[in-house]
Amino acid sequence: MATDNEKTRNDGYLVASKNGKDVFPVSFGKNLIERINGMAVLNHVITENDFNDSIVFRGILSELDNAGYYVYQLTRL
Fold it and tell me: What are the mean pLDDT values of the chain's consecutive 10-residue runs (77 residues total)?
């Protein structure tokens, strides 16, 4: 399962539609921001500051949930 280049190999995300038709493996951090913005399901563009602010980021995850997507955090042990 290849993802965009990122310096870490330990953490990643999986963005999946609730209907199971779309599944996107995404490496940690900046690439998740690009993936979410590229999906065009939110009414705004998220920034790195949004990603780093846990309260704002949880709100973004809630918006994605309402738009029909789950976001899973993956950690390689």
Answer: 51 91 87 91 92 93 95 84
In a domain, 27, yes or no: yes
Within a 10 A sphere around the Cβ of 13, how many other Cβ atoms? 20
The domain of 67 spans 11-75
Residue pointed to by tokens 């690439």: 31
Closest CA to 30 of 10, 4, 55, 54: 4
| Cβ atoms of 71 and 18 closer than 8 Å | no
Determine, yes or no, domain membership for 2. Answer: no
Contacts of 28 (CB under 8 A, 6+ apart): 6, 8, 10, 11, 12, 13
Q: How many domains does the chain have?
A: 1
**pTM of the full predicted structure?**
0.78
Give the list of residues 6+ apart from residue 59 with CB closer than 8 angstroms, or none.
Answer: none
